[in-house]
Amino acid sequence: MTDSLLSRRALMRYGAYGAGAAALAGVAAGWDRLTGADIPGRDDGSLVIATLGSAFNPEAQRALRDGFREVHPDIRIRINPVQAYDWSDFFSKILTQIAAGTAPDLVYVATEGVQLFAQRLGVPLDRWAKRDAAELRTYFADVHPSLVESMMYEGSLYQLPVEFNAADMYLNSRVLERAGADLPDDDWTHDDFTTLLRAMKRSNGDRFTPYFWTNRLWGGVVPWLFANDTNLLTESKAPGGDWLWNSFYPEAQRRGRGGGYRWTTPLADSDRVTEVYDYLSSLVQEDLCTRPEGGDGRNLVGVFSTGRVGVTPAGGFWAGGLHQAGMKPADYDVRYFPRRRTRRHQFGAAGYAMLRTSKMRDEAWEFIKYTARKDVMTQLFAANQTTPARRSMVDEARYRETGPAHWQVFYDTLDKIPTTGPIPAPPQVNEVEQLLIKHTGTALASPGAVRPALRRLQGDLEKAMEREV
Amino acid sequence: MTNTEIRPVGPEPSRIRRSRRNRGTGQPRKASESTAATTLRTRGTRLLAVLFLAPTVVGIVVFTVVPIVGSVVLSLFQWDVIDDPRWAGAANYREILTDSTVLVSFRNTLVFMVLAVALQLLIALVLAIAVNGQMPKWLRSVFRSAFFFPLVLSAASISVVMKYLFNQDFGPVNWLLGTVGVPSVPWLTSENGAMAAVVLAYVWQQFGFSFLLFVGGLNNIPKEVHEAASLDGASGVRKHLAITLPLLSPTLLVASVVGIINALQVFEQPYVLTAGGPGDSTRTVVMVIYETAFEQLRFGEASAVGVLLFALIMAVTALQFRLSRRYVHYQ
Description:
With 469 residues, chain A is an alpha/beta fold. Chain A is built from 21 helices and 15 strands. In chain A, the strands form four sheets. In chain A, strands 1, 2, 3, 6, 13, 14 and 15 form a seven-stranded mixed sheet that branches. A four-stranded mixed sheet of chain A has the order 8-11-7-12. In chain A, strand 1, helix 2 and strand 2 form a beta-alpha-beta unit. The longest helix of chain A is centred in the first third of the chain and has 23 residues, at 8-30. Chain B contains 14 helices and two strands. In chain B, strands 1-2 form a two-stranded antiparallel sheet. The chains are: A alpha/beta (469), B mainly alpha (331). The A-B interface holds A 21, 24-25, 28-29, 88, 91-92, 95-96, 98-99, 120-121, 206-207, 209, 290-294, 296, 298-299, 303, 308, 430-431, 434, 437-439, 441-442, 445, 453, 469 and B 66, 69-70, 72-73, 77, 80-82, 85, 160, 163-164, 167-170, 175, 178, 186, 188-191, 194, 274-280, 291, 294-297.
């Protein structure tokens, strides 16, 4: 026997080590997991509300907290502003808190996460909404049914929308003037849009980009898909929801409404989707727009306000940002998204979702109702950093100081174009968005890349949609 | 075999015996007294050593060993944070080994590692030799601080700035290139450009560490060796190739081991600069772990990817040490 061979004793020793390690691993796997909730004193009995950090400024948060305390002195609340780059990042952080055993009671959730939260974490608000129907009637009368429907899942209501943003088109007045162009008509088309971009390109220098867009689910490729009467995923509506429509909306407004959206089979390699990508690819090749990876909303206000960008899709939230960047109401304006086969727009909305882990559900409902009050929303959205879900709040007084001149577009996108719908956000939304971003980048990388990239997108989306979330 | 060949290293037994005398009197100690004292002293020393080492060992066990074991265990389960974990066995490994995104991320990470570590070591070495040359002491301090400074900055914040700098349409880098007639480079929007931008951003921040190691290593090389080579007529380049590099090889080994381990775990730069794109061209393994775990709620699969990355890092590091036997020279 040589030294390199194991002796029987050594073999037994290593075997014992292995068995010990396996036993330890087994014990570790079977052990009740310690979480943040096990830390003494961590739970102070407050209703914990997680908001996207940048959604409300500290002053607004204070107003929210103090105002609620006045109405409900018996309910202690703690606002937990979670700093995040976007909704996907925000959801990741909330899920991390849930994994850590320190789940909030309420989470501010946008359309991107409505179905994910509803399916896995949320509590339907139906019984409270029915109970307090009289109190909620003025709210629903003031809120477009499309927004409410986007917060429903399989027949139940999961959130009361307090804000939304449809993807309309912002135009820089100074750039328009240099191009010798007027503000486009309400009913402008893709062709008008291309002509305008070419005129802008001709009249501005090399370091100018006529159209700036961000590669993501909201405001990226999807509004172009909507305008071409298609979508990323096959769209249908769940049955149910009559309890809500019959209680709060007149006949004309409840026609065709259901129990929330369903997004199923991917459509990425369909002809209409390909048409859209071919169009965007042609804009990129012609140097009329940023490549998808180049678009980053973080420096967008800067480049738009300094006249280095002519047009960009955005919602009412941009009015506040441009005002802060020093733009006067006359320096920019807003129009509908240019139509192709339809004028359908996309929107995203947000509200508070109640988590199943909450032990303070009645208190949480009181908070949800409180935040849907007009006086509270007026305080929260004073800076025009979003479009209020209440129609009556989108008025001339709100936009007098910030602009734009055609502020009516924001709510008219819902009222005058009733087909306008939410972004396709199934429970698998995070993976869907990642795939969309990734393959859109590849599709627009070079001429001829569109079809292969869309075929791969289709395949990956099919896998993602089959995956249980 | 002779006695001299098997003699153990150390003092002769007779000398040891002679040294065992009572302090003060100088008289030889009794055998039992001497053994007991030695045992006690040894036990005390051992206890002290254990006491001093215990906090570190506990820290390593709690914060390193347990998470590693936890990841290995978790890689055998399906877990989405919300529900209890379910046994999956090797299914997670099968899934990730057939996932093109995971495989591409390993390829990207290896390409990134080779480019980033090579560039980082080269820049650090050249600058260390330059700073170690003839220059005023204060200027040397300025350069050392300047080169080390990026290392103390947050990688995420640097990447945000870099994203602006490398922006094809509005970034100063392309503007500067434009002033000398170089056409606009699609830094973040083409596959090669994006990888180049990520590597440059990473190297810019990281080379300061290798630079400091090299400066220390260069200072340890005796000046006489270089002087002797000069007297023999060796040129500057020859001296660096024949003297500096071989004598610096232990430092090079440390810098490359640390550099490779860090590069294999790169996350912030590609995540912020390119989000892994265009397509998957800059998606790294740690990005895939983050996305799979925290964005897709597939913690089991993410752990399996983590275990593979751990194995890769161990393998590459072991290979480096193995190769070092041939290429590293200790004085």
